[in-house]
Known about the structure:
Elements lengths: L1 H5 L5 H19 L5 H15 L2 H12 L5 H30 L1 H19 L18 H11 L2 H13 L9 H7 L5 H14 L3 H11 L2 H19 L5 H14 L4 H11 L5 H30 L1 H22 L2
Helix pairs in contact: 2-3, 2-4, 2-6, 4-14, 4-15, 5-6, 5-11, 5-14, 8-14, 8-15, 8-16, 9-10, 10-13, 11-12, 11-14, 12-13, 12-16, 15-16
Amino acid sequence: LVMGFLGRFVRRKILLGLGMIWQCTANTTVAFGQRFEHIFTSRSLAGVGSSPQHPTSAAYIAETFSKERIGRALGINIAAAMTGSFLAPFLGTLVLTAAGWRNTVLAFSVPGFLVGVAFLFMQETKRSQKWSGVSTFSYLYIGLREVLSNRTVVAVMILEAVMAFRVGARDFLPSFFIRDLGMTPFESGIAFTVFVAVGIPAPYFWGYLSDRLERRKVVVLSMSIAAALWFALAYIKSMAQLLVVLLPNGFVGQGIGGVVQAFVAESTSKENRDLAYGIYFTLAFTLGSFSTVILGYLADGFGFQACFVWVALISLLTVVAAATLLK
């Protein structure tokens, strides 16, 4: 939220560049930590540095691409992040076994630091408004009032609030594979890797489709299929059934966020777009942190079946939110 507000006055390349440098510098201090408290503090500071990445990059992309291409552009942005999340554990394991965890942390911090420096040299026009002391904070109230008085934006925030309670569901799949389906840890790892991999092109696909069709219909279609697949996953009993459900679920259930973000881009003015994205991602991450707790409680108390049925129900609520609010 703070970074979204600052985006009204500070060039986005500065926020992104300094944020990356801050994050990577904080991460390097993890390598020198001697106690849990040291590592916890370093990771917390790194989280502060990463805060501009989502709202600022989304606003940057929204301002760069036309309405007819914004869905695809945001989809590529999400797909790139998913690709990094997919490759990092594999590459990290290779470096970890050869150089140890401290050197691995240092090695992985260097590329991000260099990217942050490169951001500072990108070309970008100056922001339309200038910082003028403490009185500038009055724009925060004005911006919040303008954003939250926009019915479409409020509808998107409600939709995102519902979707946030699906966050973290896929992280329970490996344990489900091992405990309920009797897979070995290696087989479970392969199955989960395939699930993640098939989802990488999904953000671009859904973004492309939303550029061609009504975005509301794309959200309804995606989440309707996802609801059916998560519900079916709760009753899987064999490997054959798993393959039929897991692969399409990996594609359908991931990457729809770019379409929802495109709504924000189309519904807000240029001056308030950073702030709108700041609200959007603050809401997503805050509520998403409760989602994993709820899913963990359901899995421990009632089994993975209840966990997946919960995700299916949330997906259905997402369909209702999209169908009734985003018009």
